[in-house]
Amino acid sequence: MSDLLERLRGRGWRLTAQRRVVAEVLDGDHVHYTADEVHAAAAERLPEISRATVYNTLGELVSLGEVIEVTTDGRAKRYDPNAHHAHQHLVCAKCGTIRDVHPSGDLLADLPTQERYGFAISAVEVTYRGLCPDCAA
Amino acid sequence: MSDLLERLRGRGWRLTAQRRVVAEVLDGDHVHYTADEVHAAAAERLPEISRATVYNTLGELVSLGEVIEVTTDGRAKRYDPNAHHAHQHLVCAKCGTIRDVHPSGDLLADLPTQERYGFAISAVEVTYRGLCPDCAA
DNA sequence: TCTTGACTTAGACATTGTCCAATGTAGGAT
DNA sequence: ATCCTACATTGGACAATGTCTAAGTCAAGA
C-alpha cells in the first residue's frame, strides 16, 4: 500500500494532511483498527484531526477499494488495509483477535446453482471462529 | 421451533407472557428480524413490553442456542430462528434481503492447518453477497 | 394462598456513526 | 507568486443501537 497516495492522487484526490495521516496509519503494521483507533493513532501526529474526517476518509478508501470494512461482531467496524490480496478472517471468540487467512479451494463454487435464488453473486466472506492459543490455555 | 417453549421450560425458564410473545414472533415466517422489529411485532400483541425485555430475551435465546445472531452489515444485528439447521447467508448488496443457503462441501476443511495459527476452530460463517433478481433488473 | 427470587419496566446512559453550517485550504488559473 | 473556488475539515448536534439499574411485579413451588 506504499504507493497508495500516488494512486489516490491519480484519481483526483485532493491530498490533505489529514488524509495523508489516515493513510499512513493504515499503512503501518498489519492490524485491524476500528475507526476510533485510527482516529487515536492519527491524532498522535495531527492532534486537531476530527472524528468526522477520519470517518469520511475511511469511507472513501473503502469506496475506492483500497481498504476493506470488516464486521466480525456487532460492535465497531474494523478497517483492513490488505485489500489487494483476497483473504478471509479468523477471529478469537474470547479476546477478539483477528488474523487474515487464506482458505484453499473456490469458495464460490461451494454454493450450488439451485441455492443461489437468481442472485448475481459477487463476493464471499468467510469468518472462522474459535479460541486462539492464548485463550484456549 | 414449535416445541421451543417446552424445551425452555425444561431448562428452568420461568415462562412469562413477554418471553412467550418474543418466542412466537420468532417462530413465525422464516425471516431475519432486528431486535427493534421483534419488539414492534411483540408490542402488537403485548403493548407494554419493553425494549430491555426483548433484548434480554433475545440474548438468552442466543445463549441457549435456539436462535442465531447474524451481523451482515454494521447496523443492527438480526436474529435467525433457524438455529437447528446449519446454514449460511446470501445477502443482497442493494436491498439487504437475506436468504438462508446451504453450501456443499466441508467449509472447515478449506482452511489448511498452517493457516490456523493454533486456533481451535469451532464455527465457520459464510456470507455470499450479490444482487438479488429484483435489484439486478 | 403465600413467599420469594427471578422477571419486567422506564428511562438514563454508552457506543458508534452521520449530518450540517461555518471555516479553511489544495492546487489550478492568472 | 498570488488569487479563486470547489472541495475538505471541523465541532457539535443528532441518530441508531444496545446496556444498565433501581424499583416494582409476578410465576411457580411450598
UniProtKB/TrEMBL annotation, chains A, B:
Q: Which organism is it from?
A: Streptomyces antimycoticus
Spell out the InterPro entries in the cross-references: FUR, Fur_C, WH-like_DNA-bd_sf, WH_DNA-bd_sf
Keyword field contains Repressor: yes
One molecular function GO term is: DNA-binding transcription factor activity
Q: Which cofactor does it need?
A: Zn(2+)
Q: What is this protein called?
A: Fur family transcriptional regulator
Repressor recorded as keyword:
yes
Sites binding Zn(2+) sit at: C92, C95, C132, C135
Q: Which family does it belong to?
A: Belongs to the Fur family.
GO BP terms: namely: negative regulation of DNA-templated transcription; regulation of secondary metabolite biosynthetic process
Q: Which UniProt keywords apply?
A: DNA-binding, Metal-binding, Repressor, Transcription, Transcription regulation, Zinc
Cross-referenced CDD domains: Fur_like (cd07153)
Q: Name one Pfam family in it.
A: FUR
What domain of life is recorded for the organism? Bacteria
Segments crossing the lipid bilayer: none
Could you tell me what the cofactor note in this record states?
Answer: Binds 1 zinc ion per subunit.
